[in-house]
Structures are given as C-alpha cells and as structure tokens.
Amino acid sequence: MLTRSRVLFSFGVFGAGTTAAYLFLPDKTRHAPTVDDASLSPSHFTRAILTSSEPSGPNTKLLVLRVPGFTKSPESTTSASRFNPIWSVYIKDDDIQVERPYTPLEGIDEEGRMVFWVKKYPKGEVGRWLHSKKVGDQVEFRGPLSTWAPREDDAWDEIVMISGGTGITPFYQLCHSIFSREDNASRTKIPRFTLLHSSPTPSELPPPRILGRLREYAAAYPDRMALHLFVDSLEPPPALATDLPPLQLGRIGKPAIQRTLGIKTPSWWRSFSFFENSANTVKPSRRILFLVCGPEPMIRAIAGPYGRNFSQGPVAGILGELGYTSKEVRKM
Ligand SMILES: Cc1cc2nc3c(=O)[nH]c(=O)nc-3n(C[C@H](O)[C@H](O)[C@H](O)COP(=O)(O)OP(=O)(O)OC[C@H]3O[C@@H](n4cnc5c(N)ncnc54)[C@H](O)[C@@H]3O)c2cc1C
Questions:
Q1: Has the keyword Membrane been applied to this entry (predicted)?
Q2: Residues 87 and 45 in one domain
Q3: 67, 167, 183, 289: which has the fewest C-beta neighbours closer than 10 Å?
Q4: Closest ligand 1 atom, CA of 129?
C-alpha cells in the first residue's frame, strides 16, 4: 500500500555534471530498490501511473505521470538573486532494466503529477518504451537529480539558453519556475533570460503546451525574457497549425547568436584580415552565461565537443570563436 510521504529535494549532493558522470561511472544506485511509498529520492525508485499520453508531433509525446499518495512539502525559498535548480528524474524501462533522465516540464504538482515531453528515436530504448506505454500502466522513476543549479555567488546579467529538439525541456522548466509566478518574475535581481530554440521543421517544434507558455512569458516580461525560434526548413507545416510563432529560417549559427546578443560584427575588410578569429567581434560588457542543450552535433557546433566521459571539455565552436570560456558556457 502506498503511504503519504514528502518529497526530498536533495539537490545539494548532486553537483554539476552528475547526470553525465552517472551514465559512465559504476554506481550502486543503478540497482536502486523500488519503495512502496510515495517518497522521492535519487537512491530509490518510486512507482507512478501514466495518466495521459498524447502525440505532440511526428516522434514526440506529452506524457503525464502521477505518483499516488504524493504530498508536496512547502517549496524552499530561494534568495532574491537566485532561482531554483533545473532537475530531472531517471525513468526505468522495466523490460530491459535501463534508465534515462527526463525533465518534468513544470516540476511536480500538489497531486504528484509530472508532465514530460519525450522524443522517440528509431533505435532508442527508453523513449520507444515510454511511447508504447498505455494510460494506467506503471512507470518507475527516481530523482530529483540536479541538471544545472546556479551557484550562490553567480551574478549573471543574462542567461542565454540554446536548445535543439527536446533539449528545450530543461529551459522550459527553468523559465516556467520563474515566469509562471509574478512574485518570482518581478524580482529585481534575476538575470535576463534569452532562449534560442531550433527544430528541424515547424511540425517538430515543441507543442503549444511548451511554446505557448514561453511566448506568454516573453510577452508579459519583454525586458526579462526573449524567445527566438529557428527551423531548418519551413516544410512540412505542423498538422494542427493554428498560431505559428514567428520563425527564423536556418540553424542557430554565429550570425544568429551575434544578432540576438547585439554583438557588433566587424567591418567587411576586417573579416579578411588576420583579426579573423580573435578581434572580429566585440563581446558585450554584460556578464552572459550560455546553457546549451540538444543533440550532440548541435552542442559541438555551438560550444565544442564534450570532454572525456561527457565532462564539459574546453569551449570551442561558435561560442569559442566569440571568446567565451568554460566559466561562461555550460553544455547540458
Ligand atoms: C538531464 C537530461 C534531461 C533529459 N530530458 C529529456 C526530456 O525531457 N525529454 C526527452 O525526450 N529526452 C530527454 N533527455 C534525453 C534522454 O535522457 C535520452 O537520452 C533519450 O530519450 C534517448 O534515450 P533512448 O533510450 O530512447 O535512446 P538510446 O537507446 O539512448 O539511443 C538510441 C539511438 O538514438 C540516438 N539518440 C539518442 N539520443 C539522441 C539525441 N538526443 N539526439 C539524436 N539522437 C539521439 C542514439 O545515437 C542511438 O542511435 C534528457 C537527457 C538528459 C541528460
């Protein structure tokens, strides 16, 4: 029988990079037990029920898991200059005992509900398994685990989030946790948030549940949040095209990043000179943190490849060319 219990948000013990390291390091939590109550912890699996499963594009679904008997503890207050960490949970494919991290879009609500936007890859294990689950089926997960957390001494003027595909999910969670509550959104010390998101085609863009709300936040707080959407191609349009947001055609390349940030580009003759890779941009004086999340080729093009065992590695790619360093860039 399920007993009522409180969620334990033990982010403190999970430092940056834990998720990536977890995938490679042997860890007894891989064999974490499943508990018979509704408590949440990274070190045990909790049972949830799939209460909704809706297609949201060619290979994606919006899934809702609910933890029966869940009781939410009061949210811990964050200081005026900080905001909540981004977090994820590991979902276990029971058939082959494999787990992967997924991001609850809006955290967990009072009823124990978590909403996920999950992509299915043709040969992917857990994504395909999750898509095959029926409403009423049981799904085990463990967490929360910190995906990224601001440091106590962080003082960024702007956080630029760059995502591809379902890589938008951690950024949606972050924006939602700030802009869905006016008391949070109107705090004076939070940085400005800029989200650059790309999907291959309009039909693969995040569903209205995600994009609609992000657009609302950007409209309500234009000096605090900006949203820029990119597609590789305008075809095919979404099956349920209603209110398509403004789209930029092409990938999130250097010109797009420079334009978005108001970074000045060189006069034409300088771009042919030996200044090519050093002084051909004027870095804005404001302190900018870049968070990049998406398919590996996109991370590589924008921020350079991961290091060994998915460590951060040096900053290369477009952000490296623009002069940003590992203190200013986080590959997620
Ligand atoms: C912190 C964190 C949060 C995440 N949150 C979400 C989320 O909310 N929603 C979501 O859908 N995913 C999310 N992911 C990705 C997810 O954990 C899995 O990596 C993804 O679902 C693929 O797992 P799989 O078992 O289906 O495929 P796998 O069995 O791991 O992979 C099979 C095949 O798919 C390819 N593949 C796997 N991942 C990708 C990719 N990202 N791009 C292109 N090809 C790929 C592989 O190259 C391989 O050929 C998150 C990842 C992290 C680290």
A1: no
A2: yes
A3: 183
A4: 26
Strands 288-293, 158-164: pairing is: parallel
Q: Per residue in 197-235, pLDDT tens?
A: 999 999 999 999 999 999 999 999 999 999 999 999 988
Pairing of strands 248-249, 288-293: unpaired
CATH number at residue 9: 2.40.30.10
The predicted complex's ipTM stands at 0.90
The identity of residue 242, as a single letter, is: T
- Cα→Cα distances 60→3, 120, 324, Å: 33, 6, 33
* Tokens representing residue 178 in the block: 């700030």
Residues 133 and 173 in one domain: no
Ligand 1 contacts CB of residue 125 (under 6 A): yes
Nearest CA to ligand 1 atom 40: 295
In this structure, is residue 99 part of a structural domain? yes
Over residues 310-331, mean pLDDT: 95
Mutate to test the pocket of ligand 1, among 61, 63, 102 (most ligand atoms within 8 A of CB): 102
Q: Are residues 162 and 235 in the same domain?
A: yes
Average pLDDT, the chain: 85
In this structure, the answer to whether residues 169 and 294 fall within a common structural domain is yes
Q: Which atom of ligand 1 is nearest to the CA of 125?
A: 25
Q: Whose CA is nearest to atom 43 of ligand 1?
A: 295
Residues 182 and 326 in one domain: yes
- 151 is an annotated ligand-binding site residue: no
For the Cβ of 85 lying below 6 angstroms from any atom of ligand 1, the answer is: no
> Which residue, among 36, 1, 195, 210, has the nearest Cα to 116 in the 3D structure?
210
Q: What angle do CA 173, 176, 179 make, to 5 degrees?
A: 150
103 with 199, same domain: the answer is: no
Residue range 127-138: mean pLDDT, rounded: 98
